[in-house]
Amino acid sequence: MRRSNGFRGLAISLAIVAGASTWSNAHAGTDFAADSPRQVIAPLVQGDEPIVISQHTVQTMDGPLAYEAQIGRLAIRRGDDGAVHGYIFFVAYRVRPKDGVPRPITFAWNGGPGVPSSIIHMGGIGPRMMVGNHIEDSPETLLRSTDLVFMDAMETGFSRPAKEKYASEFFTLRGDVAATAEFIRAFRTRLRAMDQPVFVAGESYGVFRAAALSDFMVDRGDRLDGTILISGDFPNVPQPIAFYDAMHVPARTATAFYYKRLPPDLMKDRAATMKAVVEWATNVYQPALEHLDTLSHAQKDQIIAQLARYTGMKPEDFSRKTLVMHAGKFLEFFMGGEGDNPLSEEDTRDLQAKENLKGSPQALDHYLRGELGYDTDLTYSWIEENGYRPEPGPKLRTAGDQFDYDLPMPAADWAATLKDGEVTWVARDNPPWMPNALRQDKKLRVFVATGRFDPLNMCEGDVRVTAQLPPDQRARVENHCYESGHVIYLDPAARPKLLGDLSRFIARTLAAGKASAKP
Questions:
Q1: DSSP labels, 12-31
Q2: From CA 387, how far away is CA 401, in angstroms rounded?
Q3: What predicted TM-score, i.e. pTM, was given to this entire model?
Q4: Are residues 204 and 61 located together in one domain of the fold?
Q5: How many domains does the chain have?
Q6: pLDDT tens-digit map of 440-457
């Protein structure tokens, strides 16, 4: 059914909820928008839950923007018998379309696995953002360009399996992807979004989810216009392990430049220095790693000397046996101590994370349960809300603890991933999800975002990987590198650039889709 007169035209019974404020004095002084009358989308069948709707306005860089917030949980049912196996929590923001033209809708999530979507949701992508203990408007919000749906994967946030026996089916990569696809299908049908162009956006591990989901959705004929991969590289064109080791060096060069740890000649011009290290890593370092057994002692010493020169480390910090320094050791010993003053694994410009990525539990509680009106006694998994634990009983296991990467990868590669603490092997052994999706759907476009100071990802590596795709696929992939760490949108300077680039990517994707649809 086509929506013709806004969200109040939903063909679902709506029950008006009293709009009077019920907040206690504990909320006084918090930067919340004023309460607005709320509506509830009543359950349709047994197993559904109410969905709360409220009206808001955000002050954006383009002026005030009126939007509707939709918050609740959707049942994840088996397709054959309709049995409910779980509930996925979401917060959606939707703007009434102009001139009857459907707005795009973007489904977004964070990574982990085992991390809820509250970081990408409240980090500036959504209309409201968490700043310390307060919630403020996000002037650059992506809501200006697309409706937004932030989804919490199973056993993160308020998402839960319907019964304990169903939990394990959600904690494999395949099960995670299937549940995500079902959530998107259920949302689009229940909330009448079938005529809206669809984008998916994942961050960190969420890139794996988004890439695998893209292949899954395209293969079964679901609509998908664009895929957004943030801080997870383009992991689906397998490369030699030496490629990953070489392409992680430029980020360390940028870090050493930031701390003024490079030789004087390399400190004169960062752009020239970055160009030089990429050329060296590509044409000298990677080939050396690929032919390690044939190198003489003198050749290895020369490689180590160049590594030290480009990374601000000492030659003795590198192993002559491997010529490789993994990210953990670089972070731990870059400052020259005994590992007691490590660089942040989120942003190498910091000695520790600038912000608590989990945010303020009180502010998030007041926002979800107060401002948006989602009443629940469930604990929000991943932040400091402590719920009941049976005593005696089994030890609490997080979603991340339970997760199983059920990929077709050799056991030795998985062991190497666990040993090194890096995702190189997992990324290398993944099926070619994105190339498969790009090959099948000639209109699908991809946006790749990487932080310059992210120690686990690789700006230049993404460009090299993309260059290996067939020309028709390569033309539909955009690579962007930002002056930020792993969580790009938490950087005040990088956030508006990222959101501006995303807005333009969405616009270009829609324009290309319209052009290809013309007879």
A1: S-EEEE--S----GGGTT--
A2: 18
A3: 0.89
A4: yes
A5: 2
A6: 999 999 999 999 999 989
